[in-house]
Amino acid sequence: MTTQGSVWLATATIPEYDGIRADKHADVVVVGGGVIGLTTALYLQQEGASVVLLEAGRVGRRTSGNTTGKVTSQHSAIYANLLDRHGPGKAGQYATANQAAVEEVADLVNRLGIDCELARTPAFLYSAVPDSPLRREADVAAAFGLPAHFVDPEELGLPVKVAEAVRFDDQLQLHPARYLAGLATAFAQAGGRIFENSRVDELNTDHDIQAVTTQGPLVRANHAVIATLLPIGLTGGYFARTRPSRSSGIAVRLPVEAPPGMAISVDSPVRSTRPWPGGGPNGLIVVGSNDESDAESTYQGLVDWVGSAWGFDAVPEYRWSAHDYGTPDLLPFVGKAPGTPMLVATGMHKWGLTNGTVAAGILRDLILDRGNPSTGLYDAGRIGDVHAVAKLVKDNLHVGKEFATGHLDRLKGGLDHLEIGQGGLLTLDDGRTVGGYRDHDGELHTVRPVCTHLGCPLQWNQADTTWDCNCHGSRFTSTGAVLDGPTTKPLDTPR
Ligand SMILES: Cc1cc2nc3c(=O)[nH]c(=O)nc-3n(C[C@H](O)[C@H](O)[C@H](O)COP(=O)(O)OP(=O)(O)OC[C@H]3O[C@@H](n4cnc5c(N)ncnc54)[C@H](O)[C@@H]3O)c2cc1C
Ligand code: FES
């Protein structure tokens, strides 16, 4: 029996916090309680600032609670690419910052006494193709001072074809949800205030900054950090300067002991693996990119891959999916958003446990008016590579056009034909398209399947029972409540 949902969230106790009930004052308001918001809030509170953190749902339960839990400077095969695009200075800075972030996370876990299955382990990068770019990747990474070595593929212990491999020594794996619980607890113990179920609808910047919540109360502050995965609404235009990318994961027990290290393939489809201590010595986590396929096919692809590699009929115990954002030039956007006094952090390229820790340091230092070696590197105001941005905008338009021309599957028949647990787009007799879902009690829920961010049509995700917007990553529950921004508004009901 497979449980739908992150293995980490199912096996952690994250403290719960009340919703906001009255207006508050603070030096800093942090919007979003993922790894970036929590780390930033903790850093600032520990420095003596008074911080209020507003979280739309529960802390740590969106992308950060759905990661693979790898804390590593090995961000797939990135260093040769960074060198070619940005030159040795910036590529080297990225390497240094992210390797330092690995040690910073280890230090935080030890100092705060967080019980999160932290373990030192090698991180492998591999390819099934001989003469792949991996030898150069290892050389470039090593030249930047990273513990990278081109190694014998046998070292991985993976029963799949491996022609070339790179090993990064002394990296970390952890239980991400327990790590996040530890950060939240430490922040609250330092005097920080967390309000859950307190979605921020808008940020007014007329005099001081006001973070206005859907619930009514607002927080007045001198500084605002928007750590909502992608900045909400239209802030800084980041929705057009980033690209959402979804991945799915499974937790499975193998018939034999799992390979001890973390590994990620550079070939497509990407397969990212690591031990799953909760599953015993045979426990393995496998994560893969959704690429163009839907969530259900991605889950099946992961199960098939495990089954064929280890030669058994694999049945995962958990399966889950989440998304993160990439930028055209591979560097995150962290710092002051153009045209506003607000600070943002986005575009972690699925490496937010290290990149996000670097981001938290930058945000803290910007607010405390201190220097930070990574501020310029991750500058949130940069335009980025012109050709890459043009491609991104074109891709966005393509997505919109695809939807507008209606190439989406529609279910046959009317709403009455929806079975228990089934959802999808339906064309009514009068020609209108509505979104419908029949829940397990038989109740029918209908929505207007149009994204409340910028109006892209939505796609039904049967595997996760969500309404997803492929334009900029907003997601809604089957009944239309917001799960992920940039939107802050629930779906309309059909007229
Ligand atoms: C499947 C997968 C595996 C990954 N594995 C790894 C890994 O092994 N190692 C690694 O380094 N990185 C990994 N990543 C990337 C990493 O998980 C992300 O980069 C990181 O979690 C981003 O953190 P965040 O704080 O920006 O976002 P989130 O964790 O999504 O936090 C944002 C928070 O903001 C809240 N929010 C949103 N809108 C509002 C609003 N209007 N008002 C108030 N709150 C709001 C949300 O509810 C959420 O809690 C992975 C990503 C994916 C998708
Ligand atoms: S997220 Fe931008 S239109 Fe849906």
TrEMBL record:
Protein name: Glycine/D-amino acid oxidase-like deaminating enzyme
Origin: domain of life: Bacteria
Pfam families named in the record: DAO, Rieske
All residue ranges annotated as the Rieske domain in the record: 410-495
GO cellular component terms, A-Z: cytoplasm; membrane
Gene3D superfamilies tied to this protein: D-Amino Acid Oxidase, subunit A, domain 2, FAD/NAD(P)-binding domain, Rieske [2Fe-2S] iron-sulphur domain
Molecular function in Gene Ontology: 2 iron, 2 sulfur cluster binding; metal ion binding; monooxygenase activity; oxidoreductase activity, acting on paired donors, with incorporation or reduction of molecular oxygen
InterPro entries, alphabetized: FAD-dep_OxRdtase, FAD/NAD-bd_sf, Rieske_2Fe-2S, Rieske_2Fe-2S_sf, Rieske_Fe-S_prot_C
Species the sequence originates in: Kribbella steppae
Keyword terms: 2Fe-2S, Disulfide bond, Iron, Iron-sulfur, Metal-binding
